[in-house]
Amino acid sequence: MSDELKGAFLESLKRTNKEIKEARAKSIGSSAETFYRRKIEDMDMEIQEMLREQEDMLDMSPSSALSLQLATDFKADVFTDTDVKLVKNIRNQKVILKEVAGRYEYLFGQKVNLQTNLEGIS
Predict the structure, then answer these.
(1) What is the pLDDT of residues 16-39, one digit of tens each?
(2) Residue 66 is inside which H or E element, if any?
(3) pTM
């Protein structure tokens, strides 16, 4: 057997404190960035789903060619309550998303791509 050992294990043991800290920082930073970005993407997707739900509520077409939706079947109070609830939830989620996206940019030095338009949100 050779007296001179080689390989990744031995090289890892020879690393300096600075190298160890740098490797650890890269690993932790990468993991945190990935989780943070995914959280923001999930929030963005939830807003998009609420916006689609809001638009879908405007579809008053019949369920088949043989049926018509009667005016008596339409429940204005349910429509209004649901729409107002969606408006509030969308607004609240946009405010939170804007803050979280700003925090992400501060923490990781990059912007995350969003589908949701956050212009005018304060």
Answers:
(1) 888 888 888 999 999 999 999 999
(2) none
(3) 0.77
75 assigned to some structural domain: yes
Give a yes or no: residue 31 inside a domain: no
Q: How many residues does the chain have?
A: 122
Residue with tokens 């204005």: 76
Q: Is residue 7 included in any domain, yes or no? A: no
Provide the number of structural domains found in the chain.
1
Compare 1 and 72 and report the one with higher pLDDT: 72
What confidence tens digit (pLDDT) does each residue in 49-70 have?
Answer: 999 999 998 887 766 666 665 6
Residue 50 CA to chain centroid, in angstroms?
14
Query: In the 3-class helix/strand/coil scheme, how is 42-68 assigned residue by residue?
Result: HHHHHHHHHHHHHHHCCCCCCCCCCCC
4 in a structural domain: no
